[in-house]
Amino acid sequence: xxxxxxxxxxxxxxxxxxxxxxxxxxxxxxxxxxxxxxxxxxxxxxxxxxxxxxxxxxxxxxxxxxxxxxxxxxxxxxxxxxxxxxxxxxxxxxxxxxxxxxxxxxxxxxxxxxxxxxxxxxxxxxxxxxxxxxxxxxxxxxxxxxxxxxxxxxxxxxxxxxxxxxxxxxxxxxxxxxxxxxxxxxxxxxxxxxxxxxxxxxxxxxxxxxxxxxxxxxxxxxxxxxxxxxxxxxxxxxxxxxxxxxxxxxxxxxxxxxxxxxxxxxxxxxxxxxxxxxxxxxxxxxxxxxxxxxxxxxxxxxxxxxxxxxxxxxxxxxxxxxxxxxxxxxxxxxxxxxxxxxxxx
Length: 345
Hints:
The protein has one domain: ABC transporter involved in vitamin B12 uptake, BtuC (Orthogonal Bundle), CATH 1.10.3470.10. 78% of the residues lie in helices and 0% in strands. It is built from 15 helices and no strands. The longest helix has 35 residues, at 63-97. The mean pLDDT is 85.
């Protein structure tokens, strides 16, 4: 047995497997119900029986069947995928950096991915989505590199507070440049709703392209979950136990880039999911990332599906950006965490 495995067996790490199991099963049921509710919700009034008939006896001449199959189903599934991806990415970042307010949106990763997508729309708008998603990964890595580089080079070295400040500066800068480019190349109308965050334009081909990336990222996250748990105890502790901390951080960073890049390429810059969900999960199940990661995936998918239902219903017949719905929850939560961290300094 490796030293890290021995630690997890012998150290009384606070964990509640029974609570995690309950969250996973209840969350899966909630996701199934949320997908059904999302499919029947919208401007067009559609019943559950119509949804069933569209599945067992699809009729291309039936407008409701087309709406269900081509618009609402991929939209609901995209919501589950990106919610799971953002939540797990945030959990990994918080575990690796021991920064309780780490999130792909707050640390410039979403902005970096969005910036590269703006460049693609401006210069190679004909590029297929399967290549756009690859550029989104590169943009996510660019954003993370800038944020970590600026925070690391500051006086006193890297710290959680400096990471957040660097993320705010880099995110604002990249977002401003992205908006300027969108105006310059007259693509701001095409990017307006995407920039605000939303899954209303999700289609089957987008779901099919991002599905293997997100599933692969989630599997990789589970494979390194034990190492993330040890790393969350402190880098010195992890190194003392023989863990290759740089390798774990490198793999974790790649996983975050894949999960965030795939999500941003589809729904835009939706923030705070990776901030809210991991904190809720840790409060409920403890600090073992073997439970935190799957529970975060389930709860993240649930949050986005139900938030998207709210986005469709709040201002019928108009659509409210998903990013705005999540921000209403995320901003007060961020302020609470920031104030809590300040008291603990």
